[in-house]
Amino acid sequence: MERENQSLKLNGKKMRxxxxxxxxxxxxxxxxxSRVMNNNYHHISPDTKQKVLNAIxxxxxxPNALAKGLKQMKTNLIxxxxxxxxxxxxxKVLEGIEDACQDAGYSLMIVNSxxxxxxxxxxxxxxxxxxxxxxxxxxxxxxxxxxxxxxSNNFPVVFLNRKVSDLKTDxxxxxxxxxxxxxxxxxxxLNRSKIALFSYPIDGISPRIExxxxxxxxxxxxxxEVNESWIKILDEKEDCKIHVQDLLQGTEQPNAxxxxxxxLTLEILEALKDLGVRVPEDIGILGYDETKWSxxxxxxxxxxxxxxxxxxxxxxxxxxxxIRSNEEKREWQPETLLLNPSLIIRNSCGEAL
Amino acid sequence: MERENQSLKLNGKKMRxxxxxxxxxxxxxxxxxSRVMNNNYHHISPDTKQKVLNAIxxxxxxPNALAKGLKQMKTNLIxxxxxxxxxxxxxKVLEGIEDACQDAGYSLMIVNSxxxxxxxxxxxxxxxxxxxxxxxxxxxxxxxxxxxxxxSNNFPVVFLNRKVSDLKTDxxxxxxxxxxxxxxxxxxxLNRSKIALFSYPIDGISPRIExxxxxxxxxxxxxxEVNESWIKILDEKEDCKIHVQDLLQGTEQPNAxxxxxxxLTLEILEALKDLGVRVPEDIGILGYDETKWSxxxxxxxxxxxxxxxxxxxxxxxxxxxxIRSNEEKREWQPETLLLNPSLIIRNSCGEAL
DNA sequence: ATGAAAGCGCTAACAT
DNA sequence: ATGTTAGCGCTTTCAT
Lengths: 353, 353
Hints:
The structure is a homodimer.
Chain A: H1 19-26, H2 30-37, H3 46-59, H4 65-72, E1 77-82, H5 88-103, E2 107-112, H6 117-129, E3 134-137, H7 145-152, E4 157-160, E5 170-174, H8 176-189, E6 195-199, H9 206-221, E7 231-233, H10 240-249, E8 256-259, H11 262-274, E9 284-288, E10 302-305, H12 308-327, E11 336-339, E12 342-344
Parallel strand pairs in A: 1-2, 1-3, 3-4, 4-5, 5-11, 6-7, 6-8, 8-9, 9-10
Antiparallel strand pairs in A: 10-12
The structure holds a DNA duplex.
């Protein structure tokens, strides 16, 4: 084959500069080039080092990560699989992941499974084939059979937010029971104890389970009764207005709505506005997750804040420790980290009334 | 080396199943395995094919994409570099990119340069080293010296939204002049012709330039005068309230604000609220970009919508065509695609008054 | 219809 | 201090 003009443009096609080209230019062996790049092992004379550095610069050489990864069985790539990138909460998480990974020299491969199990499986397979060093995953709906195989193979995975039953894994969660309790306490304190709850379908998703369960628990603790018909579970595609309407047509009416999801909160607010119901005069609303817009909507939203950035940061740190531990053939003990939510008080529950 | 128990778990360490393992299990050559995987070339007897398929399944084999990519000089990976993932506009774009790429069998490597030139350069270098087949980039602030080298090497790149001067490239843009004209027409029609403009720093960013220039142009066309002190340029870290205050303290006051960025709009709205200025009674506001929250803020925002999803989709399609063209050693003619914005009328400009 | 072998670009023993 | 060489796991030419 035409082993020669490798480093020339072939009819306008991109040239690829390889380590060999650098070696030739610097008049050293490729090993030497490799060594100065990774400033590895044995001392190298300042002279040759400089020669190599010059050659690299002149040729604008960039090592082929595929070759390097193939050889080293390590890619410095971390796969991040998120269930729903549209939700700004996850972008905050992502920022935490990004920062922690950048510090440690890892790049990210981010995929969006859009709460679809099939997408998630395809994405994970892609990660595996691309030989990522580890995976951070916010599981989508449904139980993914691949999780089991990953975990039992001791592959570095950290789960985010949603617990995966039966698996002993690293998981970063936010204390949902506490979050809900914060919310209900606040409402009760404001004499808004006739509380309705809105949630997207539970579908076995742990935070959703915990928020609804936590709701019952918190209500009970306050000696309050839970009106089952005030627990509204609805699909993302469903018309929220119908449920809100239904809620307001009962014999008795709630004086507060606890929305367990930030996107859902927007839907509820719109329905309320359409129906001419005033917030917070007629009904209070308390949301989950702080967002860019929380304080700008009308009225400014009282909400449970989750430490999203921190969550991402911790997940990445944990994963990287996991990866290192595997590299050094040490044992790894999975752990669950529970972060604390907090309450941001604004005006949507009638605080200023 | 212990070439044997390759496919066994080494003290809990993940096993790697290779093509060789499959070949052995199916009692064929690795070539044959490769062939059935890629159902390539020569016919293979149904018998052997089935044997191989079985072996693959039993071993849960997944080909190593690094090795494959190294050999084929092709990764089926597309790098996406965005200037600001926090802005929901870009997530919509991303969705379009995702859909188009998935259809064509490409995976994405998404990075967030956070409007920082250094990050952007590092991210691009990472793309190159990882041998992505092409890059979609929304340039961050500043001129990136790498662009030149990419483009002149005929490397498949598509630019999004921001034009890169002097380079003959594929670029997908939205017609900013038209967008601004839509906005100003609307305002004038509502007798809100004393218009102030808010923008983030121009910094040579083409859509910002065009929106401000377009503003002047549109005003002139309506025979309106541009009050220079009403053109407010401010940094993301700056306190927006000061500028709003300043605006309201002049001898003459605007009756409308045209905000050229969706994040900025939230800031302005907050400042206005803090200052006790009513929207739209005292002043109207018209924003750029439609978002999830646009209709939920108070009052519902009248805004210029950009076809974000379409933008992403077109960019990806264009890039993939570029890649294919290179693979087939055909000539490629870069083009600029100009998409159309539209006006979404709600209540923030006093439409209902 | 199937297989042997070269080689993609790199790193890491193992020389010297 | 530097070089030689054997792979990493795959695809692809060339044999058979």
